Structures are given as structure tokens and as C-alpha cells.
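Dear support,

I submitted the protein below through the web form. The confirmation email said the job was done, but the results page showed an empty box. After a refresh the structure appeared. I'm attaching both so you can tell me whether what I see now is the final result or a partial one.
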Amino acid sequence: MKCHRVSRDWRTFLSSEPSLYRNINLLPIWKPLSSIALKRLISLSSAGIGTREIAMHNPSDTFANYSVPGFPESKTQTLSLLRQLFKNLEVLDIFCGGDRRMDASSDVLRHGFDILPFANLRHITIEFAISPTTFAKLCDAAPQLEFLDCCLSSNDVILDPAKTYPRLKAFLLTAIAPDLAHWAEIFGRWFPNLEEVIIKRHIGHSRGGESRRDCELRLNNLRILRLGGSINLRLTSTEMRIIQLSGLRVLHLPIQPHLEELHLVTVPSLPDHVLQQFYESAKSLQHLSINSPQFSPKDVDQFLRQGLNLRSIRLSYTQGINDSTLGLLHSLHRLESLEIDYCTEVTGNGIINLVKSLSIKKGGKLRSISVRGNENIRRQTIDWARDQGVIISI
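What the results page shows now:
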């Protein structure tokens, strides 16, 4: 609830009804909470309220003054009352207000473990880098955790060999130089029930130092995978829904009967025959991106002939894409967008015939076509397509 310049009666009501406070947003605050603000939080705690969601910047700054002079005089009592307020906390979001910060020299959870009870947390997002030690402590402190989005400046994570964390379903990691093979071992041993894995390299850092070892993800429940790196990847799950990979050298996986999205972007070292592993998934695919110069129309024709559920197709930089390739799309009546940037063999006639078959006016769903880098498409064609409800980008 956000109010600005409200009446005195409204302010009285909001202050007197603590049951309204289920979500606390401290993001507008860039300096430590004042003693007045802390007293207000403590009064909510005294009323028996337990907020379930909180969003803030660095907790070490936000709660720098958590010992409030005179209310009460004891820091221990203050902490106890604040912890009571957060006793039912399930969602914790810590944002840095810009690009993720990878300097772990200042641990953002220095006061967090003292004030914020982690026992019931299910969803954590931390945009500041945390140390491997803090990562391990976090896993132990939040046994109910199901979603974790964090930054690590080091891969040297050591977890208790006697423990596992079966409740974690989604793990999103941002790192400077993620050792994918190392993390694959961690996932398989400590997080066996992961359904979503996303590993991103922090923007602004080079690709040097990454692992080139074989990487096997033994996660039989895995459904969503997004990662990039010069690795040999092997998957065991047959339940994949989304696969997004870049920089890959080798890929092995079982048949994926339920795959909905396949994105292979900038994978110049990947053999062209690797796409054959996905042909059985053509009928279930809704989104397809094949953007790498070694692939040709013969490698993607199978998807275009059988992909009747495809809603978006991206084939930019694929050599040999031409009007005949577009002819295979005429039966894809669910297609909404097509991207064929720098496919210079496509002509205006091929675009016109496609629009005639799939535009909204013809009973289709096609809304956009991107043909950047192709000088064969004339302005008249673009204007005519717009009249048919299809936007062409050049």
C-alpha cells in the first residue's frame, strides 16, 4: 500500500491497524533506519504481527542502528522484538539498486543472521556477492528454502558432507568465473531435487578461467536449464521444459518429450548433428532459437515441418535460409514472431507469401518479422505487411 499526502484520519487508521503489515518495503531507504522507524517496527512486533515478505538494500546498513537508545536499553531485547516481527518471514529480497555487486569484502548478511530468522524462508534474492562461507551458512539456516538467487565471487563452496538440501527447487547463480563442472557436482550431491538451474557470468568480466572439464548434471527432476560455457555437457533428466545454452562444445541428453523451449545461441564449436537429439521434441516445442553459423536449413527443417505448436522462431545468422525455408512455415498457424536477421537469401516474395498465410487477417497469429541486415526487403513490402497486421523490422 502506497499513500502520498493522505488525510490525518487515514494516517491514524494505517498506524492503528497492524494487521495490514504483511509486506515491508525498505527499498526507498538508503540510510540506516532511524530510532523512530525501529520503534514502529517493534510496536508492530508487540502487536503480534509477523510480516511474510521484506525487500531492502544492504541489511548491514539498514539495521546499523538496531540498538535503539532508551527503547529498550538492551540490544538483546531489541533484537528479540525485531526477530519476533520477522518470525513468519518467507520472502527476503536484498537489492543493490543497480548492477549486481561482486565484491564480497563487505558481507551483506553481517547483521542479517542476527535479526532475520531464516527458519521459514522459502524465497531469497541477494544481489550483493556473498562469500562461500556465508552461502554454506545460509543453506543451513534456511532448511525450508525452495528458491535461491545469489551472487558468489568464488567457487570455493564447501558444504557439510552429512547434509543434503532436498527442498531447494530453483537455484540462480551469478559469478565472475563460474566453474560449471564444480557446480554440477555440488548440485548432484547436495541439491538433488533442483528443477531450475540458471548460471550467469557477471557482466563486465572476461570469459577467462572457466572450466573446460566434462559437466554432468545428475538432476532427474531438472526442467529449466540456462547456462553458458565452453564445456562438454551431459544431462540425465527427461523432464526438460526449457534449455538455453551458449558456448557449448559437446551435448548429450536423453529424448525430451515435453521440451517447450530450445535456445542454442553462439555455439560455434557444437557439431551440427547435435540438433538430431531434439527432433523428437519438435511437436512439443513452442519457442525455437538456433543462432550459430554452422547450422543450415537441413539441420532445422525437421523442426519447421513438425513444430505445429511453435509460437516464436529465431534463425538469425543461419546460413542458407531462403524463401523455400519460409515455405515450411505456412502450416504453423500459431506462429507469432519470426527472426531471420542476416539471412540474406530471403526475398520480399518469400515474406509476402508468409504474411498471406499467417497474418491475423488471414486467421493466423503472426505479428512480427525481423529481417535486419537484409537489403532485399523493399519499403513497399514493409508498408503492405503493416496493413496486414505484421510489423517488419529491418
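Response: this is the final, complete result; the empty box was a page-load delay. The CA atoms of residues 266 and 292 lie 5 Å apart.
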